[in-house]
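User: These chains co-purify. Model them together.
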Amino acid sequence: MSIEARFRLQKDRFTLDVDLQLPDRGVTAIFGPSGCGKTTLLRLIAGLEQSPDGQLRIGDHWWQKDGQSLPTHRRPIGYVFQEASLFPHLSARANLEYGVRRVPKQQRKVSLEQAIELLQIGELLERMPDRLSGGERQRVAIARALAAGPQLLLMDEPLSALDLKRKREILPYLEQLHDQLQIPILYVTHAPDEVARLADHLVLLEQGRVLASGPLDQTLSRLDLPLRKDEDAGVVIKATVAEKDSRWHLARAQFDGGSLWVKDSGLPLDKPVRLRVLARDISLALEQHPDQSIQNLLPARIAEIVSNDHPAVALVRAEVGTTSLLARVTSRALDSLGLKVGSSVWLQIKSVAVLE
Amino acid sequence: MDSTDLSALSITLQLAGLTTLILLLLGTPLAWWLARTQWRYKFLLEAVIALPLVLPPTVLGFYLLIALGPNGPIGGLAEALGGRSLAFSFTGLVIGSVFYSMPFVVQPLQNAFTAIGPRPLEVAATLRAGPLDRFFTVAVPLARSGFLTATVLGFAHTVGEFGVVLMIGGNIPGETQVLSIAIYDHVEALEYGQAHWLSGGLLAMSFALLILVYALNRRFAVVKP
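Assistant: Joint model of the two components:
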């Protein structure tokens, strides 16, 4: 079971040409700058746009093949648009029920009650859409898509029309979706933060072509992608809380190959967390220096070195066990420390963000 | 009001009611298609539909008379099928009125459908609604103020027609004589009292209808968030 999507679409001067194999579980982020074709790709998968010789298979079902294409209303999807797009003539409850009524009972993977509970919109049900705030509308829209019992949830930048406060209001709900539901989600975004928080798999699009497609941690640590040029380049590590130091309000997050101390925000033991470590927050040392303030020191092996756009700066991929981290250092520092691929180093990690 | 005036009133209301009904049945799919099609020559059809807005009613009436008469294509067909020619008949009046009032129904509907935009229909499709389902559960409710405007304008405009009716309906009391023509007859005969009654009645009715439209339109409007 997996998702296979092959599309070619010519639109004015823009060409979308993709051939993707995607996992049928977890969140797949489709990431890229505006105009790269991510929304078009999502619309093709929904059947809202047509690519005549496209092919689309979801699990065992062909949705498009050999010129035959299921119309949108026969595809068991949920679609969350950029703007909430609630039906303005229907109350929040009637909006939710619109989809539910049209789906046979045995196909409903998520019940209406479950969707209402998950997005906590019980209080809002009797209101008309114009009486809801932007964030509330988007929550109702997400619940509406879920309640229609989709086998595939498509989300087109569901947060981008919201201000920062509303974004923060909705992100936890999306994380809940990710943790609690067994529905694969294709999530279009241009926000690195949302990718780091939500994605398990990352598809990188640029000018209608797929630059990369792979598991999040592996793709973020690749040095052959334009991602590395980003000021916020870095990796996301999946870890679990293994130990707590209550005196100093710290928690130790264990991952494959090592562990990092992070601020304890009341994390329970064994809770899975995502750690985001930026390349600019890591420096390299030849020896473990105990007489310094940085708490997180990891022994690592340099696996790859590339120079960034500016020749003064280099990016280093270092492996800790099977986990890769990126460090941004000056080329001069690499030279004076005599570091090259295969060298053993200590990573000094100044800051770790806990995402879940 | 004498009995001819009463029958003129009855004929007028029947004509306007029937014309509006036919126009809503024909005009809705036509307006829907016009609002959604990418056909490059759609402007030609739009111009044809809008013709009655600018054409003198007598011109339209003249051509309809020829078409509906015994030697015209439509009238000839009716005769061949065993009926009588459609000129100077109530049926002929209905056909003429449908053409004459068409822009008043099609244009508000087309505008209302266009204003909905593609998004609500796409949303409905992702929620498993088929094309007809989408039309009746999303497009029609969202265009409801367009339907109200179309109905009232279609009806009121048919009530007010004169030239077309005179040309193709003649002026047969009890059969094709409508109010606007009855008024004209009264004025010709210097029966100003009766002309006052009918004119005042029409004025009051038209005004009341328009007040209704504007008042309802506010309450009817779908508030977009």
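Chain B has a mean pLDDT of 89.
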